[in-house]
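Sample intake sheet
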Amino acid sequence: GTGEGLWIRTVERPTRDGGLVAVRIDITEPRRQRAVAEQAQAVAEAATQRLSDAIEALPDGFALFDADDQLVVCNARYLEMYSASAPALTTGTRFEDVLRYGLANGQYPQAEGREEAWLASRMERHRNPGPPEIQQLPDNRWVRIDERHTRDHGIAGVRTDITELVRREQELVDLNTRLDAANAQLEQLSETDAVTGIANRRLLDRRLAEEWSRFTRHATPMALMLLDIDHFKLYNDRYGHVAGDACLRRVAQLLASCIHRRTDLVARFGGEEFAILMPHGSAESAVALAERCQAALDGAGIEHLASPVAASVTLSIGVALSPGDTAARSDTLVRAADQALYRAKAQGRHCIVLAD
């Protein structure tokens, strides 16, 4: 160096006659350029280190793939999330090769049994990034994938752990499922007779209202029958109320066994009375069903030695059909069936009466 800021390189060689040859070369500009390059390199290295530190400080997983879809960099969080694929996550590895390594090592539970289809779909979304997607990892862990193209046609991707959110959603879905089941059970219990286990008056009234609405709109016929256990008070007096409840359950089972159509409904009307609602029921089909019910009960031979009608439990049945006037109220049908039942009792019981 010189005092004027110049840099000189000196080369000296002795001559054969004992002299000295000296060459002076001005290297000021090359040295300046070298210093500038070294400074620029130091700045670039510092910037690269800051970028690396920033990527490592991210709470989410980050990976960058170049235009040839080869891994440029990924942070420790990314390696932690994809631990089964970590050995393949080295600089220069293609994204597809990373996926295939992960498939072979159980990294992607959602792909089980359909690996190639899953791989094709994942590669398509990777090459053409769109909205975020949710991906399942082992041990019921979940990440959200956000990928974007870079200016040099690479792909930058961020993985956010959303395991807690997904698990809470799963718990909420499970809770709603159990709540729906409980509500369904509660609704069933609210429309089920506690003693006999068949439909109660509440369900009968609801179904009757529904069928009556169809009747008023389309004149769809229906039949309703009321069935009364003959002299049931005498049964309770002789055999006791526990036996009386058992008798009600047995009668309910027998009546239900007589139903051959899914739309028909057997219900406990109240006390020792039962009802059968028959949508689209005709006089012939209603009377035939009533006869089946009587025959089933007679055949069961449930002892009733206190009855003046027979030595076993018998039924009196009143049958009514929907009226010709669609403007009538639904209680018209109930009253008609009740009046027919009253006439059956007046005629000595253990018989079937069809309403006028």
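Comment: The first strand starts at residue 8 and ends at 14. The mean pLDDT is 90.
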